Structure to design on (575 residues):
C-alpha cells in the first residue's frame, strides 16, 4: 500500500481519534508532511521506538502504541501459560499522552488475557526496570522519549531480567508487530472489566518503598555522609520530569538534607516550558539551576532528564561560576570513589568488574586497572550492560561494580538493569561529600585523577538527518566510511579498524581478528597516538554519531587532538 493509500485509510476511518482526525485535516494539502507521516512504519532501535507525536504510521499515537503492544502480546501468547500470566509492568513519564498510551497498552494486553501492573502516576524508567524484577513480571513497558524535545514520545520494552528486551526477543516481537498490519482492528479491552477480572492492577507506593529500600544500600560510607550530608549544598532539578519525588526522597533518606529543587522545574510539564531540550548533556538545561546556585552559593548542581535515567552535573568554581562535567568524567569520578571506598571498607571483591560501552572513555579503564578490576566493553545500549550483569550472576565469574555509557547514563547496583539517575544522584552526592571533607570539589577531584592517569578528552558529535531521505543519507555515509575507508585522521595514522557489522578487526598491516560481540553497524578506528574514533547511527533518532577519545600528558594537548579529529571527521563526512 502506498503512503497516499495509507493516509486515505486513516482519513476515512470513521472511528479515528478526534484529535488525530483534526491533525489529518490540517495537513491535507501538505504532501511533504503527509508522506513523512505515512511513508513507513516506526521501527524498534536499541531502545524501542521513539518519534514525533501525531497522526500516521510513522508517528507516536494510540494506534502505533496498540500495534507495538499487540506484537508483544502475540509473542507472549506463544509462551507457557504460567509465564504469560506473570504479566507486564507499565510506567510512563510526563510527556503528552504518556498516561493514555500506558493505559492503551494495558487494554491491548488485557484483550489477550495478559495481566498489567500500571503505575498510578508517572514514575522513572529505572523504577520500571526494578518493578519487572520486583513483581516478577515477564516484561515491562515504559512510555517515554527520555531526553528528546517535547514533540516526541516513545515506547520501550523490557525483558524479565529488567533490562531492555535483547535483540533476539525484540526481533521476534517486531515480526509480530508487522503481522498486526491493520492498526484499527487491534482489540482494546474495557479498563473496568480488566480491573474486575484482575487483569489490571494499579501500583504505586508499595513499589516506591521497595525501590527506595534498595537505593538506601547505595551509600558506602555512612559516617562520611553523616558528617558532610548536612553541609554539602545541592541544587537538584528533575527538568519537569519523573525524578522529583523519588530523587528528593532518596537524597533525604541517604542523609543529604541541605538541598533545594529548582521550583520552576519541580513539577511535571509536558511542554518543558523552561528548557528547549530537557537533556542534562546540554549546558542550557542548567540555566535555571545556575541562577539558583549562585543565589544560594551551592556546591553542586545536579540535573536528571525527564524519565530520570540520565544525570548531569555542574560544579561551583572559586570564581562563583559553574563548570559542567561530561558523562565520561562523571563516570570516572564515581568509579574511582566506588573502588576506593569499597577497598577501604574491605568490600571490594577479587572478581570485581565494571562495564562500559565501546564508545565510552578509556579514562575509567585506567582507573579500574589501578584497582585490579576488570573492565568489559559492550555495544551501545544499556541492555548489553544488563546482559553482562545477568551473565555474572549465572556464572559467578565477576561481581558487578559499576556500568556506564558516555551519554550520561550510569548504574551502581544491579537491582535495576538500566541506567539509573536516582542511584547516581545519591552516589554522586557521596562522592562530592568525600571531596568536600578534603576541602575539594568534584572538579578538583577530576584534575587530581587527570594528574594521576593522564588527560583524557572526549566528544560526541551528532549529525541529524530529518525527513524521509534521512535514513538513506545516514546509510550512504556509513557506506562511505567502509568503502572509501580513511587511513588517517588529522595526519595521525589509523593502526586498526574494527567493523562491528562484520565482527572483524583489521590492523593496518593486514592482521585480522574476530570481535566477540553481537554484530552492529559501528566502526571504530584505533590511531597511532592512542586515540580512537567511532562512527555509528543512532538506534532511536535520525542521527549518525561520531565519537572521539584522546589522551595526552597535558590537558591542552588532549583537547587540541580532539579538535583536530573533529575537523577531520566533519571534512571527511562532507566530501
Amino acid at each position: 500500500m502506498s503512503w497516499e493509500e495509507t493516509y486515505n485509510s486513516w482519513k476515512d476511518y470513521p472511528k479515528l481519534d478526534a484529535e488525530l482526525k483534526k491533525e489529518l485535516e490540517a495537513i491535507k494539502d501538505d504532501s511533504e508532511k503527509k508522506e513523512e507521516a505515512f511513508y513507513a512504519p516506526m521501527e524498534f532501535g536499541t531502545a524501542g521506538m521513539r518519534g514525533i507525536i501525531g497522526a500516521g504510521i510513522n508517528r507516536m499515537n494510540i494506534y502505533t502504541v496498540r500495534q507495538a503492544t499487540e506484537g508483544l502480546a502475540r509473542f507472549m501468547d506463544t509462551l507457557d501459560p504460567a509465564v504469560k500470566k506473570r504479566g507486564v509492568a507499565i510506567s510512563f513519564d510526563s510527556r503528552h499522552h504518556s498516561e493514555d498510551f500506558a493505559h492503551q497498552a494495558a487494554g491491548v494486553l488485557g484483550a489477550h488475557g495478559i495481566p498489567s501492573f500500571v503505575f498510578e502516576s508517572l514514575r522513572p524508567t529505572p523504577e520500571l526496570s526494578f518493578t519487572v524484577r520486583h513483581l516478577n513480571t515477564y516484561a515491562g513497558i515504559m512510555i517515554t522519549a527520555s531526553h528528546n524535545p517535547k514533540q516526541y514520545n516513545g515506547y520501550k520494552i523490557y525483558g524479565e531480567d529488567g533490562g531492555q528486551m535483547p535483540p533476539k526477543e525484540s526481533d521476534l516481537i517486531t515480526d509480530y508487530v508487522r503481522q498486526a498490519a491493520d492498526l484499527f482492528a487491534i482489540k482494546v479491552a474495557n479498563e473496568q472489566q480488566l480491573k474486575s477480572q484482575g487483569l489490571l492492577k494499579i501500583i504505586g507506593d508499595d513499589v516506591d518503598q521497595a525501590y527506595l529500600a534498595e537505593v538506601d544500600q547505595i551509600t558506602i560510607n555512612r559516617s562520611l555522609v553523616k558528617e558532610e550530608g548536612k553541609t554539602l549544598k545541592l541544587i537538584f532539578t528533575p527538568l519537569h520530569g519523573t525524578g522529583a519525588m523519588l530523587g528528593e526522597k532518596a537524597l533525604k533518606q541517604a542523609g543529604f538534607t541541605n538541598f533545594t529543587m529548582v521550583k520552576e522545574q519541580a513539577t511535571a510539564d509536558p511542554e518543558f516550558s523552561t528548557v528547549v531540550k530537557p537533556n542534562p548533556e546540554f549546558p542550557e538545561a542548567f540555566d535555571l539551576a545556575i541562577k539558583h546556585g549562585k543565589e544560594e552559593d551551592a556546591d553542586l548542581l545536579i540535573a536528571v532528564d525527564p524519565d530520570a535515567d540520565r544525570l548531569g552535573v555542574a560544579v561551583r568554581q572559586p570564581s562563583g561560576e559553574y563548570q559542567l562535567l561530561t558523562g565520561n568524567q562523571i563516570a570516572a569520578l564515581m568509579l574511582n570513589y566506588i573502588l576506593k571506598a569499597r577497598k577501604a571498607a574491605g568490600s571490594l571483591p577479587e572478581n570485581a568488574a565494571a562495564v562500559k560501552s565501546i564508545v565510552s572513555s578509556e579514562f575509567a579503564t585506567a582507573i579500574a586497572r589501578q584497582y585490579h578490576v576488570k573492565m568489559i566493553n559492550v555495544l551501545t545500549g544499556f541492555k548489553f550492560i544488563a546482559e553482562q550483569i545477568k551473565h555474572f550472576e549465572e556464572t559467578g565469574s565477576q561481581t558487578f561494580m559499576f556500568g556506564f555509557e558516555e551519554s550520561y547514563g550510569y548504574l551502581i547496583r544491579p537491582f535495576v538493569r538500566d541506567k539509573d539517575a536516582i542511584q547516581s544522584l545519591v552516589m554522586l552526592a557521596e562522592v562530592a561529600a568525600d571531596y568536600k571533607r578534603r576541602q575539594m570539589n568534584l572538579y578538583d577531584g577530576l584534575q587530581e585523577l587527570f594528574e594521576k592517569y593522564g588527560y583524557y578528552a572526549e566528544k560526541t558529535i551528532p549529525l541529524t538527518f530529518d525527513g524521509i531521505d534521512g535514513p538513506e543519507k545516514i546509510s550512504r555515509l556509513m557506506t562511505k566510511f567502509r568503502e572509501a575507508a580513511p587511513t588517517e585522521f588529522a595526519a595521525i595514522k589509523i593502526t586498526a579498524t574494527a567493523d562491528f557489522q562484520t565482527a572483524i578487526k583489521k590492523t593496518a598491516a593486514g592482521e585480522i581478528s574476530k570481535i566477540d560481540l553481537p554484530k552492529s553497524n559501528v566502526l571504530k578506528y584505533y590511531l597511532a597516538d592512542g586515540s580512537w574514533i567511532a562512527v555509528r547511527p543512532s538506534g532511536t533518532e535520525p542521527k549518525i554519531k561520531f565519537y572521539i577519545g584522546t589522551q595526552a600528558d597535558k590537558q591542552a594537548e588532549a583537547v587540541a587532538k580532539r579538535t583536530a579529529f573533529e575537523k577531520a571527521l566533519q571534512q571527511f563526512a562532507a566530501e
